[in-house]
Each structure stands twice: as structure tokens, then as C-alpha cells.
Amino acid sequence: MAQIRTDTDIPSAFRATAARRGEAPAVVSDAGVTSFAELDRQSDRLAAHLAARGLQVGERVALYAVNGAAFAAAYLGIQKAGGVVVPVNLLLNPEEIDYLLTDSGATAFVYHPALAEGVAAVRERAVQVGQWISLGEPLAEGDVGWAAIQAGLAPAPRVMIDPRRDLAALLYTSGTTGRPKGAMLTHANLVSNTDSVTAALELSEDDRLLVVLPMFHAFAATVGMLTPLLHGFSFVPLPRFEPAQVARAIGEHGATVFLGVPSMYALLLRLPDEAAAPLEGLRFCVSGGAAMPQAVMAAFEERFGVPLLEGDGPTECGPVTCVNPRHGARKPGTVGLPVPGVTMEIRDREGRPLPDGETGEICVRGPSVMRGYWNRPDETAASFFDDFFRTGDLGVRDADGYFAIIDRLKDLIIVNGMNVYPRVVEEVLYRHPAVAEAAVVGQPHELHGEIPVAYVALKEGQTADERTLREHCRAHLGRHEVPRRFVFMDALPKNATGKILKRELRKAGEVERGVVTAD
């Protein structure tokens, strides 16, 4: 039985690992190697600086930085001082960032100087921020640079942290409905999730994870960064996703595991054989963040001979709740089994457990589930059935305990009173050889209630028209499931992790090219 810790905080867990691993590599990149010992020293000095400037336990500190060793040092340093990390999505505009800073009450802002334009725009609004800290050269008078912080000699503070109560990070959801909400994740939430991930994926100190997903995101932060740092192995951070660069970094830096979202795997499949060759050296890959089209999974595994494990979990759960096992049955089309320490159930709209085979909402209980939403008691209460978090995913559990996500509860389309699950339609579209990307959303209709609308991007050099795709859908779907409109786009809109943004498609309406309406 895997040990799932809830009695330790992130600084204590990291310090113990750093003492054991010493000069072993913690972060490996083109910029060089940062050992566990050096990362411990760097984060200690930032913690000492923050404490000397009066940072109090529980105070929020924004972190606005690209993937890299400095991001990890800042993340740990903030927590060593007793602060709460508020990672900032690099794609947000200044108004949205200001909302996060205001809502969280952040009093310090740690930034990477490569983001100078964004920092300048945020600075004009963020009047409540008292400290500006650069992970390189300071960008303005009064800011403190990384070199000055690392020259400090004061010892790091040893603050008292209650792992189960004190917050380690405040992670803002993507805000698909209304304003983003801050998920309050404690030290125990995150430490326990790294334990669960390590056990479920059978990771060891011989592993090296390649992390190109942005580290401000829950998946990359917990699985890609914290899990290696708290368990004694290394990771390779990349600042942006470029398929050829990903493959090169895997080969040059000896990565054994790649973390990605489905769209990344689809793009890696387009690499020519010579550039893609390093992918064959991976032990396995993990996909999360969105539904993995089975056609993409099958093509990736067939070409590279590397197992691709699909898993899932929302930000509010640390985030990992389930994954297909490394050994034993892997079931394509499912997100696998609950990770150690986590319990999952299917419940109806009233919160009653449903038997295997019946569709309902996936609900999660375990030590990684958040305390609640920051300053949102009503929304927190509405997000739980007793101590089970409501994920908002419609799913089903089979007789072997594997969970499959049918769709997001809010994405369900009701046509003439009949349920249409967009993911089912998307799976069919992905099986067409010309389709590179597909997303299906509902559109209000005065006669039918709603109609399904398909947004499609074609593979380079491939052609298909609305009649072709409609006939393809009719061959595999019920009449009510066939999209009534097809919208062809060069590429579908995505967030920073590569997840297709259905909310943007709903807003888009008709676009300049390719809109066809069926009778």
C-alpha cells in the first residue's frame, strides 16, 4: 500500500529530499543543471528575503514566470517563507491579472524579466502590490533582482505550517463560467497528490520528466515539478511547445517520461521520422487536461512504441484523481483507475451513488481535494456532496472500476429532449482521416432546443467538405447526434496548455469561411 502523506508540508518534504539527493540533478535544461542542494539554497535565500520584508504566514505572493529552474526556486521559496503561491497564467491580459491580484489580495509579485511587457502593464494597475521581485535583472527602480537576493546571507525562516490547514497555493480556475475562482490547496493536498502520482506511475529516482506544459497550470506544477522535487528525481522544463524542440530535448537531456495534452500528441505525430526519433526512447507518456481521441492514441503508440497513459483530474483535486495503470489492463477511452488515496464515485443530480454502468457526475474524495474556493463559501458548498467534490464531469464506472468521462456536465447538448454528448461526436470526427482537430458545442434552436455544431480543423494537405463529414457522422451516429452545422477553421482556439476552448467557439458564431447549415 502506497504511503500517502498528509502530515508534512512542502518545504519540509523538499528539504528532506534535498538533503538525501544533494548534488544530484533536480532541474536539467539547455541553461544547465541545477542540483537539489543548489535549488534548496536558492529557495532559502528568497524565503529569507521575503521574511525580512515582513511577509506573514498565509500571505499571498503572485508568481508570473516561464518554465525553468527559477520558477521552481521561487515556488519553493515563497512557501518556505510561509507564503501562498498564486501562479499567474501567462496568457491573461492585464485586466485579468489585476483581478487575480485583487481577488487573492497578493502583496508581492515575483516575475521573470522575459515577461517585461506584461509586467509593465500589470504594474500600472496593481497598486496593492508592495514588493516586486525579478528572477533576473530588475525591470524598474525599487524592484529587487535575483542576484541581490542570492547574495543575501540571512538564514531561511523556519515557519510553523499546519499541512492540513495552511494553504500552499491558490490556483485560479479557467473561468469557463463567470470570473475565475481560486482553489485553495493546502500543503497536505499537494504533498499527498505527489505521493499518489509517484505510486500510480511507478516513478523512481531514475526518471526524468519533460515538462512543456506551463508550470502555472496544476498538471505541470504538481506532476511535472513538485512530484520530482519531493521524490528525488529530475525534470526538464521547456518554455514553449515546439514539436521538434520537444523531441530534441527528450534525446539530449535523457527524459524518460513526457507529460502532454491531446493536441500535443497530435502535433508530435506530424514530425518527420528523423526529428521524431528521440520519442522512441521514452518509457511512457501521460495525457491529461482534455479527452484523448482514441485515434490519436492508437497512432502515437503504433508509431513510437511508447505506452500513452490517459488520466484525469480537476485543479480542485490537486489535480490528479485517476490514471490508466502502468502495468495491468489499460483501457483506451477511459481515464483509468483512482490513484492511491483517492476514492471516486458516480452520483446522480441529488448526490446519490449510482451503480456501475450508469451515467452520472464523477465525484472525488481524498486528501488531495481542496479546502474550498477562496472567499466563495456558497460556491464551495455547491461544489460538494458531503465530502465528495463534484467534478462537473459526466462519466461512468465499469465493473473493473475504470472510469470513463462522457463529457462535461455543462457541455451536454439536449436535442429534442435527447442527450447528445459532444465527446462521442468528436471521437467519430477524429476517426476521419482528414480531421486534425474537432470540437462540438451546442447552439440554441427555437424548434429543437439545441443543435450540435462541429468546429473542425483539417490536416495539412487534406481536404474534406461538409457533405463528406456529415455522411461520415451519419454512418456512425444517431440522427440527433449528427452536427447540423460544420465550421471549418485553420486551427481551433486553445488555452496555454493546449486544451481546446469551447467557450470561445460558442462566442465565435459564424466565421468567415466554411459555415454550412443542414436542413
What's a concise summary of this model?
The chain has 519 residues and is an alpha/beta fold. The termini are far apart.
Task: State Rg.
Answer: 23 Å
Strand order of the largest sheet: 10-9-11-12-13-14-15
Spans of at least 5 consecutive residues with low confidence: 510-519
Strand content is: 15-25%
Number of strands: 27
Termini distance? 58 Å
Coarse morphology = globular
Overall SS class: alpha/beta
Q: Give the mean pLDDT.
A: 93
- CATH architectural label of the domain at 11-186: 3-Layer(aba) Sandwich
Topology of helices and strands:
Layout: H1 10-21, E1 25-29, E2 32-35, H2 36-52, E3 60-64, H3 69-80, E4 84-87, H4 94-104, E5 108-111, H5 116-123, E6 131-134, H6 146-150, E7 167-172, E8 182-186, H7 187-201, E9 208-211, H8 218-231, E10 234-237, H9 243-253, E11 257-260, H10 262-268, H11 273-276, E12 284-287, H12 294-304, E13 308-312, E14 322-323, E15 337-338, E16 343-347, E17 360-365, E18 372-373, H13 377-382, E19 384-385, E20 388-397, E21 403-408, E22 413-415, E23 418-420, H14 422-430, E24 435-445, E25 449-458, H15 466-474, E26 485-488, H16 502-508, E27 516-517
What can you tell me about this protein's structure?
By secondary structure, the protein is an alpha/beta fold. Among the domains are: 11-186, Rossmann fold, CATH 3.40.50.980; 412-517, GMP Synthetase, Chain A, domain 3 (2-Layer Sandwich), CATH 3.30.300.30. Helices cover 30% and strands 24% of the residues. The strands form 7 sheets. A 7-stranded mixed sheet has the order 10-9-11-12-13-14-15, with helices on both faces. Strands 16, 17, 19, 20 and 21 form a 5-stranded antiparallel sheet that branches. A 4-stranded parallel sheet has the order 4-3-5-6, with helices on both faces. Residues 510-519 have low confidence and may be disordered.
